[in-house]
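Section: Multi-chain targets

For targets with more than one molecule, the full set of components is provided together so that the structure can be written out for the assembly as a whole rather than chain by chain. Components appear in the order listed by the source. The example entry contains two components.
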Amino acid sequence: MYTFQLDIVSAEKSIFSGSVKSMVVRGELGEMGIAPGHAPLLTSLKPGSVRLIDNNDQESHYYVSGGMLEIQPHTTTILADTAVRAEDVDEAAAIEAKEAAEAAMADQNSEIEYSRAAAELAEAVAQLRTLQSIRKKAGK
Amino acid sequence: MAVGKEIRTKIGSIKNTQKITSAMEMVAASKMRKAQDRMEATKPYSQKIRKVIGHLAMGNTEYKHPYIIEREVSRVGFIVISTDRGLCGGLNTNMFKDALKSMKQWQDKDVEIDLCLIGSKAGAFFSRFGGNVVARKTHIGDAPTVTDLIGTVKVMLDAFDEGRIDRLFLVHNEFVNTMTQSPRVHQLLPVEKDDDDDLKHHWDYIYEPDAKELLDVLLVRYIESLVYQGVVDNIACEQASRMVAMKAATDNAGDIIDDLQLIYNKARQAAITQEISEIIGGAAAV
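Its structure, encoded as tokens over all components, is:
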């Protein structure tokens, strides 16, 4: 019985790595089963489970929230997304990042105040340290 | 005994500080190990995706994605990754210095700069220093997810798509080892070509739906994974740097305590000697 090497990786971690006999994934254009010796293929995946049968005929399931499937002559890789990606969700995140930048711009006063206070504090600490070293010399 | 009260209080307070710094050192050491693991875990994804992109770009000469084409530079974008918290030695400062150096090179050529800041230290630094901040993300924590970064990356990618920026750089600290972290500036967009011989395969993929759409998605994922890697790398650097800084602080506190203890003992002895001589002097007078 032939097997092929399968790696499921996401940007955050490696999810699965090992040799499998076959697997079934949800591709962009429908479900597909992959057996050893499949032609090189590149396709995007829909959120769904990856069903695979390993060397010991054990069936296991992994959930991927979309991603890419790449089949090379000897190895197969699933580049899994870590979260369900949708245009409007991404857009909302982008707007949030922009707003955070704008809010920080508007709030610059408080940061300047803070940095002034920090500078004053640093000066006071330096003075204290000088005093201490003078005292230390006098002590010796 | 009244003589050394001040010194004793001082020793007490330094001892308390020492306890805190040594606790922080230990916390940073354990967090660093986890951060290093996380850093390792991100590598396979970006390596794989880079290979696929290289293959796609090679195989599809008729379609050139905008992310691959070099263009005239009139404005550049910088994504600067800093830590959220301080007390980690010169980590952020060194990185900002490098970032400013490379920004200066662009400014000398009359190229304007847009900034995207990740981490609160970068926010604080650039609000003092000035700069056009277009996106910002703070409080990413010790275990960030890609989802945390999608927004900031998208702002910059959109800017690139719309032609508002012509080049995109990423600035972060690179984890070399526990003692060494070096700031690094590297170009994200346009994607630099990688002349790897491995990529010159003699076979081509079957594409579903088609190569162009796949390339679009892959390139975005690739940039995201690089930024994510930068963030994770920077966290490992933060913990390593904090560990070293806190170790130095703990050692320094120990030195100061030793010195103060010596002064205290001397003062105490002087006081005793004086008392004895006073008693003897008194006895002699009687």
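The first strand of chain A starts at residue 4 and ends at 10.
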